[in-house]
Every structure is written in C-alpha cells, then in structure tokens.
Amino acid sequence: xxxxxxxxxxxxxxxxxxxxxxxxxxxxxxxxxxxxxxxxxxxxxxxxxxxxxxxxxxxxxxxxxxxxxxxxxxxxxxxxxxxxxxxxxxxxxxxxxxxxxxxxxxxxxxxxxxxxxxxxxxxxxxxxxxxxxxxxxxxxxxxxxxxxxxxxxxxxxxxxxxxxxxxxxxxxxxxxxxxxxxxxxxxxxxxxxxxxxx
Amino acid sequence: xxxxxxxxxxxxxxxxxxxxxxxxxxxxxxxxxxxxxxxxxxxxxxxxxxxxxxxxxxxxxxxxxxxxxxxxxxxxxxxxxxxxxxxxxxxxxxxxxxxxxxxxxxxxxxxxxxxxxxxxxxxxxxxxxxxxxxxxxxxxxxxxxxxxxxxxxxxxxxxxxxxxxxxxxxxxxxxxxxxxxxxxxxxxxxxxxxxxxxxxxxxxxxxxxxxxxxxxxxxxxxxxxxxxxxxxxxxxxxxxxxxxxxxxxxxxxxxxxxxxxxxxxxxxxxxxxxxxxxxxxxxxxxxxxxxxxxxxxxxxxxxxxxxxxxxxxxxxxxxxxxxxxxxxxxxxxxxxxxxxxxxxxxxxxxxxxxxxxxxxxxxxxxxx
Lengths: 198, 368
Fold this sequence. Notes:
The complex is a heterodimer of chains A (198) and B (368).
Chain A: E1 2-6, E2 11-15, H1 18-24, H2 26-32, H3 39-49, E3 58-60, H4 67-77, H5 90-103, H6 112-117, H7 132-139, H8 142-155, E4 156-159, E5 162-167, E6 170-173, H9 180-186, H10 188-197
Parallel strand pairs in A: 1-3
Antiparallel strand pairs in A: 1-2, 4-5, 5-6
Helix pairs in contact in A: 1-2, 4-5, 5-7, 7-8
Chain B: H1 2-20, H2 28-46, H3 55-66, H4 68-84, H5 91-97, H6 102-118, H7 140-144, E1 172-177, E2 184-189, E3 193-199, H8 201-207, H9 209-214, H10 220-227, E4 235-239, H11 245-255, H12 269-281, H13 289-296, H14 311-318, H15 321-334, E5 335-338, E6 341-349, E7 352-358, H16 363-367
Parallel strand pairs in B: 1-3, 2-4
Antiparallel strand pairs in B: 2-3, 5-6, 6-7
Helix pairs in contact in B: 1-5, 2-3, 2-4, 2-6, 3-4, 4-6, 11-12, 12-14, 14-15
C-alpha cells in the first residue's frame, strides 16, 4: 500500500507495508487492521485479493504533517535503520512527535526517540523551546516533562481559556495541543493568582 | 525622609497609571505579567546578579539558601530599601515592567509565598493518555530466562491462524510470532531444539541482503513455495545453525522494527556477541546501530579484560575503530591460529597461562 501526503510545497508518496503499520501503530491497526471493518480496511483487502488491480491501495496523510518527519517515522516503523538520521533538529523532533501522537506510535520510536532527544535536552529551559513539553509528553520522558511542567506552572497563564507562556516578557501561544488535563494540572494556581491580583 | 518616600511613591503611581492607561483595565494578562515582573524587580534589587536570571530561578536559589520564611523577610526588606532609595533601581524598569504601585508589591509577596509552595513537577504516569507511559519494562535476565514459548513484553502478539506445516522432528519445538501478520515462517534447527518464527518476507528482504538472496524469485525456496498451492500453510525457510533461539528471536525482532519491545538494559556479554555474530552473518549490522549504546556499549570498558576477547567482533561489526585497533594489536602478539580458529594465550592467574578460544572472530579478521 502507499501513503500520500500533499502539502503546499510537495506531493509525496510513501510505499509502505500495511503489516508494519498495523504492528507499530494502533491508529493504523484500527484503520486497516485485519479485524477492522472500516471502509479503508475493506478496500485494502479488496486490493490484496485482486490480481487485476494495477495501483496500490492509498491512504492520505494529514496535510499539516511534515513530509520529512513522516518519512522518518515510517522508516522507524519498518525497521530501516540505515535510512534513519542519528540527529535531528528541534523542529524536526517536534514534527516527529506530532506525527507519533497522531498515529499513536511513539512507543515504536524507541530507541531513536532517546537518541534524538538526548543532545537537545540542554534547550529545555531556553526561550523558544517550549514545545519540549509536548515532545516529552509524547515520548514519555519523565524528567523533561517534570521540568517543563514545573517551569510552565511558573510562567504559564490562561487567557480566554487558552494556555499561554510568558517568554521574555511576551505572551506566547504554544503551537501544539497539550491535553487539557495536563494544562489543568498546573494552571489553577495561575488562575487563582490572576483573580487575586486583578 | 518621609516626604521624600511619599513623593517617590506618588511619582511611581503616576508613571504606572500613565503606562497602563494604554491597556484595558480588566486585562488579566497584564496583571499576571505585572506580578511576575514585580517579583523580578524585588530579587533584582536583592542582588544585581539575579537580573540576568529568571525570577523563579532566583527565588529557588534564595529559598534553598535561606529557607522560605527568611527569603520572604529578605524580599520585604528589599522592598523597604527600594522605597527608601528608589534611585537604586532604574525607573525605566518600573515603567516597562510593573503594573503595581510600591504598596502592591506586598500583595504580590503574599501570592508568591503560596505559589512557591505549590510549584512541583508533574508525573507522566498521572496521564494515562500518554502513549509511551504504559509501556512495560523488562530486563534481559527475565527475558532470556523465561521458560517455555518465547515471548516478549508485548502481549498483543498473536500466532498466525493458518495451519502450520508439520515438521518431522523429535526435537523440542517452540514457536514465536515475530510478526503479527507474518506471511512465512523460519524454522531454526539447532542441536537440541527447533524454533518456528512467524515472519514477514518483505522485512527479511528489505533488511538483509542474505535473506534477499535466499528468498529471491528464482531461489529453491520460492520454487518450493510456488509449487505449494495450499493456502492453509505458510512457507517455511529452514535454517540449520546452532544459534541461541532467543537471540535469533531478538535479531528477527530488530529486523522487523520491533526492537522497542525488547529490554533496554545492558545485554549479557555472551548474548550481545551472539547477536552481533548473527547480524554479521546476515549482513545487516546497521540494524544494531541504534541499540549499540544501550545493549553493547557498556562492555567497551572490558575490552582489555580476560574473557572478553570476542569484543573484537563487536568492534569490527559496529565500526569501533579504537577498540578494534587495540585488540588486533594485542591479539597479533598473543594469538595463534589453529584450524582457522583464533586462540588467545591469556594469563588467568600469575604464572598460569590459559588458552582462550575466540569462536566468533570472523575469518576475515583472523586472516589479517
């Protein structure tokens, strides 16, 4: 089968193994797994059993996803170590985390997640790297997650129901979706604080 | 003196009111922002060095050194000092950062006290939706000593539903579903037991040039598969090697991109060397690269020690030049080759030499 990704700049097609996707991602298992009765799963089975189909079964990825990061995630799911980078930029790592969260395959990224995160951990307290909270949550990195939540409980505020962080005196909106239950765990303090002062 | 304080206080109030008249009065962000910056000024006043620090870093340092009570008292003293001699702080900082009059600083101190006590890191395990937190951890000692059918920590493995070919053998038989949706099986026949692994032929071909060759279209294996028209059986590839079945399973798991299910602690040396030897045999040493740091790297420090001579193979396969050069230099002096096997003479006890057999050292290296 293949995965298609169309963004504003690129049309990418990834040829993949449905078995590997189902083994490493619960999203794909639910979508196209042998026990799934979804339209996509039925279509895939029809393709697999048909000898006349000239094209591969195609799934469309979300256009917000980064093409390079998606390629990296798919290589890891297929165990193709020779194509996987040993170091990535913070932006790449964030994009990989976004994709892993979406396809629910973060656990499959081991040990690559640790290899990628390790050199970037020095940036956890640096302004501009607030998305470490999301990355550490997705990959289950307790020490960084604890550090980020501790920092945000000091510098985070809720504005009109949205979580924002004060970075260098400027309010910044995080570009990722931190689950509300996490935000709620460290922001009541700030809310109380605001109401008292206002 | 009192008149001067009043005058300075009125001046600050005037400046602040002027500054914040630009904003809507009920803007909560402004208040939160103001409180934080107000705190900053207190600590900046306490020590100039703290100006470059985050307020809360400064607060943490103070709390650690002075204790919370003493810190609050110190901060209050600083505020008094600020009131007495406002020229020590730049007025511009107030204009730029504070939305409070000097009297309001005490209010922020009270809030700060409760805030400092409440701040603590969150625990990931509290959030069950985290995809990685529920992952079970196991160790090599438990993994390698499990009895019966080979298993990994992932309980979702399912045996293929299709009926397997019967294998005529008096040996003990174990099965292992390496790939949940395997399209073929590997039968590993070692001297005591046989193990059947359900695998994906695509993964074998993609990861190993040797398997690619074994499974190519014109190979004997494929011809046999094509002749077998029964859909109820899976094709089998038989391997007669004396590999440890569990280590071979580890190899297949990595080949299928499922190494994340395996333990992450340092692997027993013997296991690590067998794994390296298998990866070398099937020409897919790149598979080990991400795992090298976790499983094998710790054995690097024992390279000079007796009993770790096979470390040479690991150094060669993983491209560890330093260890490889050191060991080959040593072995050139202490090793002899008999029947294509490298034998190292080591001094196990003073005055007592022992011959150590390096069974995993590759012929190519011995030739050098």
